[in-house]
Design a protein that fits this description.
The structure is a single chain. By secondary structure, this protein is an all-alpha fold. The chain has one domain. Helix content is 63%, strand content 2%. Strands 1-2 form a two-stranded antiparallel ribbon. A hairpin with a 4-residue loop joins strand 1 and strand 2.
Length: 452
């Protein structure tokens, strides 16, 4: 009886191998950030590329949860102080510097935007952006989004709120042996949110009758499901599943997971383009009747047909679960190797900087320098994307890479990933604290997949 009682008190222990170097993760980030750059350069191109954020949310939740499980397995605890310090060092400097740069540019050259930007900045630095400036707000109150400058911060806010909760939640669930129950709860809530969107319900509370004059927080909550927290929940559930699959991988998993993974890649990325008008032109009469709108169409008074927004985000996240698991567990998978192409990996490592800063680059080029009327539809996409990459290089090397070295001071594990070699190497806490040169650890284990 005593043995049984002791067994019942043992914490949850992951049996999955360490994540290590996964080049495909960075490659997916690289493809994703290119999609974001292209679509923001010319929004009619692929509006449904918005599904890439669901993929990033899925990856981020999977990585963070898996790393927390690894940390507890190695040290029998999760160091909360170091976890939040790593998140802050990793995410805040570039984001806050970007907001400051926007304020300077706006004060000097575009003061008509200053009032709106100040509101955005307050919401962004407190990571409440998706509440006060939710996805789909333009459909309810076009005037409220007329001069938005940093609207990409909505997804960073969703992720930061996830980081705030996940470490404590996982620690409690591990100690109480509630990880499987946590996964079930995540799945149930995610299914319910997806079902709400399918039925045209964009949030947990009704949309106010007069959105333009409603309380901003109430309005934000009425559109909360458009921020796709369910994709993060799918990632947590997938991490728990991965933690229960032993190593070596069972034969049935090794045989079928790559096949299902390929189907998942095709379905996920295919879903991201089927709402494009250009896709419809290419397919001629077979053009798929799934137009894109920025929020659930039922609340816009339109219930005719099937809209991408009703199912697209859910399909993108669910379809990518198999490829994500395959990349994590079968490193030699040919799709993993293809996605690990070095140029894609480099863009993937730059993805956070590019995501945060590219709207400022676009504003300077298009609005302040007057190229909006000069660049035609054909050339504006590659030109703007290339300019964004070039302009962000100093920030990437001068801020982000430096912060990754500082982040090592808050490492909780004895080994870290060296991206130069793709191997785990011992971390000398003493030398890290002195600021000596350490391995490049800015890749697949950084856990910021949702902030591409």
């Amino acid at each position: 009886m005593a043995t049984a009682g002791a067994q019942a008190q043992r914490p949850f222990v992951s049996v999955a191998p360490r994540l290590g170097f996964i080049g495909g993760f960075d490659g997916v980030r690289g493809i994703g950030i290119l999609g974001v750059l292209f679509n923001h350069a010319y929004s009619p191109l692929f509006p449904s590329i918005a599904g890439i954020i669901d993929v990033f949310f899925l990856m981020s939740a999977f990585l963070i949860t898996s790393l927390l499980l690894q940390e507890h397995r190695d040290s029998q605890t999760i160091d909360m102080r170091k976890f939040y310090a790593r998140r802050g060092v990793r995410l805040l400097p570039s984001a806050y510097l970007c907001i400051l740069a926007w304020l300077v540019v706006t004060i000097l050259f575009a003061r008509y935007r200053l009032h709106t930007l100040l509101g955005e900045a307050a919401a962004a630095v407190t990571y409440l952006y998706e509440i006060f400036y939710p996805v789909g707000l333009g459909a309810l109150d076009p005037q409220a989004v007329e001069n938005l400058s940093i609207d990409q911060f909505w997804s960073l806010a969703v992720e930061e709120q996830f980081y705030l909760l996940i470490a404590v939640t996982v620690l409690v669930a591990i100690r109480k042996r509630w990880m499987e129950q946590l996964a079930v709860v995540m799945v149930v809530i995610a299914v319910w949110i997806a079902w709400q969107r399918w039925n045209g319900i964009p949030g947990p509370i009704p949309i106010p009758e007069d959105p333009a004059n409603a309380n901003p927080a109430v309005r934000g909550l009425s559109l909360l499901w458009m921020s796709r927290p369910d994709s993060l929940m799918w990632g947590v559930a997938l991490a728990v599943l991965n933690a229960r699959i032993p190593e070596p991988l069972p034969a049935v998993w090794r045989r079928w997971l790559p096949r299902v993974g390929i189907v998942g890649l095709v379905v996920s990325f295919g879903t991201m383009i089927i709402a494009s008008p250009y896709f419809k032109e290419l397919t001629g009469r077979v053009g798929l009747p799934f137009p894109y709108v920025p929020m659930a169409p039922a609340d816009l008074g339109d219930t005719s047909g099937t809209y991408w927004i009703s199912f697209g985000h859910t399909v993108c996240a669910l379809a990518f679960m198999a490829p994500l698991l395959c990349m994590a567990r079968i490193k030699e998978w040919y799709a993993n190797r293809a996605l690990g192409w070095k140029p894609l990996r480099f863009l993937g490592r730059m993805s956070y900087t590019l995501y945060v800063w590219h709207t400022l680059v676009y504003f300077i080029v298009l609005d302040l320098l007057g190229f909006d009327t000069v660049l035609g539809e054909k050339w504006r996409v590659p030109i703007l994307a290339a300019l964004a990459v070039l302009a962000c290089l100093p920030v990437y090397y001068g801020v982000e890479r430096r912060m990754l070295k500082v982040k090592l001071r808050f490492a909780s594990e004895k080994e870290v990933l060296d991206l130069n070699t793709g191997k785990m190497v011992p971390l000398d806490q003493h030398s890290a604290a002195r600021g000596t040169k350490r391995p490049d650890t800015g890749g697949s284990e950084r856990g910021d997949g949702g902030a591409p």
